[in-house]
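Fold it.
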Amino acid sequence: MAIHKRNAYQVAVGQVMVGGDFPVAVQSMTNTDTSDVAATVAQVIDLARAGSELVRITVNNDESAAAVEQIRGELDAVGVAVPLVGDFHFNGHRLLEKYPDCARALAKYRINPGNVGSGEKKDEQFNAMIEKAIEYGKAVRIGVNWGSMDKRLVARMMDENAHSASPLDADKMTREIMVASALESAAQAEAVGLGADRIILSCKMSGVQDLIAVYQMLAERCDYALHLGLTEAGMGSKGIVASTAALSVLLQQGIGDTIRISLTPEPGGSRTTEVKVAQQILQALELRSFTPQVIACPGCGRTSSSYFQQLAQDIQDFLDASMPSWRTEYPGVEEMKVAVMGCVVNGPGESKHANIGISLPGTGEQPAAPVYVDGMKTVTLKGENIAVEFQQIIERYVRERYSP
């Protein structure tokens, strides 16, 4: 298997660079009615502040297209410069023509080759969208989805496969059609005049093994920037685990330039969860760092007290709350590791390996909590104020270690 090494074409999406040697970018998508400007602006702000570097919005009718320029303006007015990606299906060619302010305000157009028309109109309407991208200097994501594949392409390739001396089975054929749709559409876009450095490809599947196989095929056959995502991943732990399983394999192989975790939000849940999961995947793979990490043991019979669990949660909440200001004041703080351990078995060792660590007493141990800073024991905390004192130690360490 050839490794992609993220040596794809470099694509400018607004001020964000995708591909080449640039870091893998985190993307998300709103679920508001785009014509509701206030709601959409509020959600984009939440996603951007959570760390989403690109935000996709639905542009599906006249009202949503007419709202895009105002959304962009209100974001700029509050200093949120995150690039907006327009999600177009079926009528994108008409909306981009009718609403030039929308076409200008978006940083990237997402086109699904299976949903741009049928018959002769397909090529005409696809080309019209590409021409607008060329006119306004925009990037394009050609996003194939196995739930909406080009029927003409499917029929042609299925027929060819049926007459082949060695026909592929249904699963392999589906993957071949997905890849062919993406590559043929990219070639068509280039023929119209869009540069390869303006094209991002995606082939989204809802099965983990299917997704891995399709992107491995894409990585072997092209040098376009690739957007990764398991489509319709699902809710909660199922969606998180499935997305992590698929994307981690690909990212470890060097495949992928942007990622999105397509989670179904729980009722009343925050849309920003998908951003945090994407960041955690990249940070766990040591591809990027976004926030200091808390290392904590799961607990066992030696740790009958829940004190260390609460302290670990409190410290993680403290770090998350501090990061908006720390990120600008203390460069590099996002790489800090803090250990909160529950007993003497692994507590001192893990604490020594972290930047800062505390080993709390387990069942039957002396009521004392040694603190380690950069591998050296510096103090032993006792009493009722351990949590406050440990937090103060972290704050002092950040100031002394990461001040410019």
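The mean pLDDT is 95.
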